[in-house]
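Lab notebook, bench 4. Still working through the backlog of constructs that have no structural model yet. Next entry is a single chain of 244 residues. Request: give me the structure tokens for it.
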Amino acid sequence: MIGCHCQVCLSTDTRDQRTRCSILVSYGGKSVLVDTTPELRLQAIANKVDLIHAVVFTHGHADHIFGLDDIRRFNTILGSPLPVYAAEATMRTLQQAFSYAFTRQTQAGVYRPELEPKIIDGPHDIFGVRWQPIVLPHGRASVLGFRIGNFAYCTDCADIPAAERANLRNLDTLIIDALRPRPHPTHLSFSQALAIIDDLKPRRAYFTHLSHDVSHQDIERDLPDNVRVAYDNMVLEIPGELLS
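Model written out:
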């Protein structure tokens, strides 16, 4: 946190050094990036992410989209445009903020991202794997979580509505928003996230999108054994077949 010198911001535990929230989902020789944070370049270098084949967006807030320009490097490596998946409202935000990235390049030597928009309006396949969108409330906005096989990712939400919980049963792994112990109007608190985990009963769950209120070590001390805290550079292996 800029200008903050609390114990978490000064912590030497690398798990407390949190960049903005994003994941990379890899299967079948393809890698799909979920959200392009302002730290995208640094995240890709730190994790040796040399190539992605598509981008999926949860929503259009600045902390989830403003690294989009760095996608240009993956265009160069691939030698082709990248498909970008987003809900219609999010796509409008992206095309307004990065209009130059959605036009075909005609001038030699111009170095910029080149993206192919694909609107998410229901379950869709990406490289042969079904992505089930989960509509989540985030203040007055709606964001998308995703179920991919027996894995689900639900960031930036204040609840998971009952109608959507039906799409999140029988999970191996759930990554879920959990901002801090105290309530927040647009994010789940720790206790709210735990209540949802208790209802959905995934085999394991991970908190994400944490604030600097509590250290990684202190949070995990009070969590059930099947619930942990996600951290930068974490790698998860998801057992089971993703294809559906």
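Notes after review: The domain at 23-123 is CATH 3.60.15.10 (Metallo-beta-lactamase; Chain A). The chain has two domains: 23-123, 128-232. Flag for follow-up if needed.
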